[in-house]
Write a structure and sequence with these properties.
Subunit structure: The basal body constitutes a major portion of the flagellar organelle and consists of four rings (L,P,S, and M) mounted on a central rod.
GO molecular function: structural molecule activity
Function: Assembles around the rod to form the L-ring and probably protects the motor/basal body from shearing forces during rotation.
Number of strands: 23
Distance between the termini: 20 Å
Subcellular location: Bacterial flagellum basal body
Order of helices and strands: HEEEHEEEEEEEHEEHHEEEEEEEEEHHEE
Largest sheet: 6 strands, antiparallel, barrel
Number of domains: 3
Strand content: 35-45%
GO biological process, one term: bacterial-type flagellum-dependent cell motility
C-alpha cells in the first residue's frame, strides 16, 4: 500500500513538473491588513451524560457554574455542587478580516478539566476576547465532538478525541475591528514562501498588467503595491485586480520524508551528483529452546533443565553497488529503487546517506 502511494506521489510530481501551470497571486501572498484575529474565551458545557468534570479535581468548574447561576438570579452561596454533567472548556475562534457585527463564525471547544467526553453537551453563552481584552464575539450552541468513548466495569475504549469539538457558526460577532481599508495608500504583499525570483516575477506581472510601474520588490518576501499609481477606484478594486494575476512561482529544491508513514515528497528541481550506492539488510536471530531432563524412576536424582540456544545471522538481498550518473533527478532514482522492490524506509535511509555524502543537492527535511 505504501509503495503504491509513493508511486502515486511520484506520478503526481512528474505530471506537475510537465504542466507547471501559473498560480494566482492570491494563492501565493498575504495582503497587508487582510488578516484574521484570534479570540479566546472560558466557558461551561452543560447537558453531558455523566461525562463531565469531577468537581473535586476541577474546582474552577464549580466556581464558574456558581457565577453563571448568580448572574441568572439564582443564589447558590454556601451550596455544594457535585453534578457530573458539566465541564469547563476553553473556546477559541478566528475573527475573519472585514467581519461585521451580526456575522457568525465557527468556534472550537476544548475541555480543560478531567471531563471524559463533550458529546451531546451545550456551550453556555461565552464571551470571546481578543488580546486587547475587548469582547468581539459571543459563543453558544451544541458541541459536535470528534470522537466517541465507552466504559464498562473492567475496560474502556476511546476513539478520536471526545474532549474537543466544534460549533459551526457558533459565535456571533458583536464588535468590528477598527480598520479603514479605504485610506491605504500602499499595500504590502507578503509571500508565503519567500523567494527573490518569485517576488521579481510578481512585480513584473503586476506592472505588465497595469501597463506602468505600480509595484516594487522590497525583498524576497515582500512586494509593495502603490494604490494611487494603479488609478483604481479604491484599494479594494486594486487588490481585486491584482490577486487574479497569474505568476509561475519558483520552487526551492526540497525533499520531505516522513519516517512514521514512509512517505517521500520531492520537488522537480532536485538533482543528484555522481555517487555509488549499495544497500543490504542483516538479520540476527536467537532462539531459546531449553530441554527438560527427567531422572530415572525410583532414583534420587532431580529434574534438570538443559539450556539449548540457536543463533543465526541472515543477510537479506538488497541492492548491489549501483552508480548514479551526474545530473540524474531524484525522481528517476526513486523510480529505480521502487522498481527494485526497495522498502520505503530503506529508501529514506538511502536518501539520508546520499545527502550525508554531499551528492543530494536539495534541502532535506525529516518529519
Amino acid at each position: 500500500m505504501i509503495r503504491t502511494f509513493i508511486a502515486l506521489l511520484l506520478a503526481i510530481c512528474l505530471t506537475g513538473a510537465a504542466s507547471a501551470n501559473p498560480i494566482r497571486i492570491k494563492d501565493l501572498v498575504e495582503f497587508d491588513g487582510v488578516r484574521g484575529n484570534d479570540l479566546v474565551g472560558y466557558g461551561l458545557v452543560v447537558g453531558l451524560n455523566g461525562t463531565g468534570d469531577g468537581l473535586r479535581n476541577a474546582p474552577f468548574t464549580e466556581e464558574i457554574m456558581s457565577n453563571i447561576l448568580e448572574r441568572l438570579g439564582v443564589n447558590v452561596t454556601g451550596e455544594q455542587f457535585r453534578p457530573k454533567n458539566v465541564a469547563a472548556v476553553f473556546v477559541t475562534a478566528t475573527l475573519p478580516p472585514f467581519s461585521r457585527a451580526g456575522g457568525q463564525i465557527d468556534v472550537t471547544v476544548s475541555a480543560i478539566g478531567d471531563a471524559k467526553s463533550l458529546l451531546g453537551g451545550t456551550l453556555v453563552m461565552t464571551p470571546l476576547n481578543a488580546p486587547d481584552g475587548e469582547i468581539y464575539a459571543v459563543a453558544q450552541g451544541t458541541v459536535i465532538a470528534g470522537g466517541a468513548s465507552a466504559q464498562g466495569n473492567g475496560a474502556s475504549v476511546v476513539q478520536g478525541v471526545p474532549t474537543a469539538g466544534v460549533i459551526p457558526s457558533g459565535a456571533r460577532v458583536e464588535r468590528e475591528i477598527d480598520f479603514d481599508f479605504t485610506k491605504l495608500k500602499s499595500v504590502r504583499l507578503a509571500l508565503r514562501n519567500p523567494d527573490f525570483t518569485t517576488a521579481e516575477r510578481i512585480e513584473n506581472a503586476i506592472n505588465a498588467d497595469f501597463g506602468r510601474v505600480v509595484s516594487r520588490m522590497l525583498d524576497a518576501g515582500t512586494v509593495i503595491l502603490d494604490v494611487k499609481a494603479t488609478k483604481e477606484l479604491s484599494p479594494a478594486h486594486a487588490l481585486g485586480r491584482v490577486e487574479n494575476i497569474s505568476v509561475q512561482p519558483e520552487i526551492k529544491a526540497r525533499v520531505v520524508v516522513d519516517q512514521r508513514s514512509g512517505t517521500i515528497v520531492m520537488g522537480q528541481d532536485v538533482r543528484i551528483s555522481n555517487v555509488a550506492v549499495s544497500q543490504g539488510n542483516l538479520t540476527l536471530r536467537i532462539e531459546e529452546e531449553p530441554l527438560v531432563v527427567q531422572p530415572n524412576p525410583f532414583s534420587d536424582g532431580g529434574t534438570v533443565v538443559v539450556p539449548r540456544t540457536r543463533a543465526s545471522i541472515q543477510e537479506e538481498p538488497g541492492i548491489g553497488l549501483a552508480e548514479i550518473q551526474e545530473g540524474t533527478s531524484l525522481s528517476e532514482v526513486i523510480a529505480g529503487l521502487n522498481a527494485l522492490g526497495v522498502a520505503p524506509r530503506d529508501m529514506i535511509d538511502i536518501l539520508k546517506s546520499i545527502k550525508a555524502a554531499g551528492a543530494l543537492h536539495a534541502e532535506f527535511l525529516v518529519r
